[in-house]
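Progress narrative, work stream C.
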Amino acid sequence: MTIASKVLFELNPPKLLTNENFKLLELDSQIDKFVKRAQKLAEYVDGLHITDSVLGIPRVSSVNAATILRKSGIKTELSCSLRISDRNLITIFQFLSEAIRNNIQRVLILKGDNPCYGPSMQSLTATEVLRILTLYRFNEHIKLDLSFPNRIVNPSSFEKKLKVKPHAFVTQSISSLADLRSIVDLARPYGIKIIACILCPSEKNRISAQNIGLDWSAYENHPVHFISDAAMISEKVLLCSPNSFNDGLDLVKELGKNNL
């Protein structure tokens, strides 16, 4: 198995508003662009992960966007995030049902930032939502994941997340292989897999790194080798390049050239 076969790539679906207005023609154009980007990436990665209105900015729902990709002919693994800050249990059940029926392989359950429009609907934690979904046996039809920090400060603080046994923990952007190993060691006795998120180190993504307090100096000059090492430690790696699709595409192409 090559390392490239363990790489996922994160994509943001199109925004719903243009200059504070809904414009159908603009949305259709952006959806077409989104599909073409996904088709380019699908040649080089094992799967695509679709985000769910990051920062609370309204976008095409992740499950709808993933369904569009599936219907466009993309056969690679598809996963999507589920923001519980926007939903009650009924809409969460609807989301999971739609994902399962449209052959989406996994869902990442997370709190999400407060919505930019209207009040937050959150009353449950992501861990509690996963427990409820497991109670109703959604986990028998789709892989359910939880988010996880990029390092462990207090192992006992993760007891609830470990006991609910998601299929995998998806980390925040990592910068240390030692920290990643610690996360894997913590989760292993519970049979929980780890997907390590890695931010593409490019100039256009530097502001994103600064905003989340990420120091990527450990891998900035040799990202391919860092990704290779991380993929050997974890089940998969999730690459993200929020401010430059082309930089992210170049990185996954480089992974392919190196046969990693």
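Work stream C, second folded protein:
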Amino acid sequence: MGKFKNKLYRFMYGRYGTDTLSTVLLYVYFAFVLICTVVSIFVRSLWFSIFYYVVATALVVWMLSRMFSRNIAARKRENDKFCGFFKLRKNKFRDRKTHVYRKCPSCKAVLRLPKAKGKHFVVCPRCKNRFEVKG
């Protein structure tokens, strides 16, 4: 068994491996297979079977291509973007009583601003654009 493990380590050297997005793709694959298996009991259709196999295969290929990719920087950017989306949603919910989140009209950066009534001006820290925010 040690020989196989050593070969696997050498094969994966320099490759991206697993991350949060790959793990979520695996869970989505299992959920999709489970749902389609239950639905296929009631729906006997060739088109449904083709759809099921194509989507399931696409999910597996996407997950494996991410894991075996040597373009580590691109995979890290994809994973950071995926995780950042959910982190922003979590922060918005956590700060819903004290802060508001607005996008800069110039550079599209998301700004966390304290809640205030009325109109006021904000300066974007990234692009230094000054814009009006309604509270």
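The first helix runs from residue 2 to 12. No further action is required on this item.
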